[in-house]
What we know:
By secondary structure, this protein is an alpha+beta fold. It has helices spanning 3-9, 19-26, 30-38, 55-62, and strands spanning 16-18, 45-47, 50-54. Strands 1-3-2 form a three-stranded antiparallel β-sheet. A hairpin with a 2-residue loop joins strand 2 and strand 3. The longest helix has 9 residues, at 30-38. It is globular. The model has no long low-confidence stretch (mean pLDDT 90).
Amino acid sequence: xxxxxxxxxxxxxxxxxxxxxxxxxxxxxxxxxxxxxxxxxxxxxxxxxxxxxxxxxxxxxxxxxx
Length: 66
C-alpha cells in the first residue's frame, strides 16, 4: 500500500485514534489489537484505562518502520 493511498484511506479519521478505530482501520479483532499494543508493535499511550494511538503510528506499522 502506498503512503498516499494510506493517507487518503485514513483521512476520515482524527489524528489521534482510539482502540475501536484501530480495530476498524486494520480490520482486526480486539484480541489481535491488544496483542499488537502489548507487544509494542504499534506505538501508543495510555490515558487512564484508554489507549490512544496516533495516525502516524498506524502509518509506521503498515509500512514496517518504527
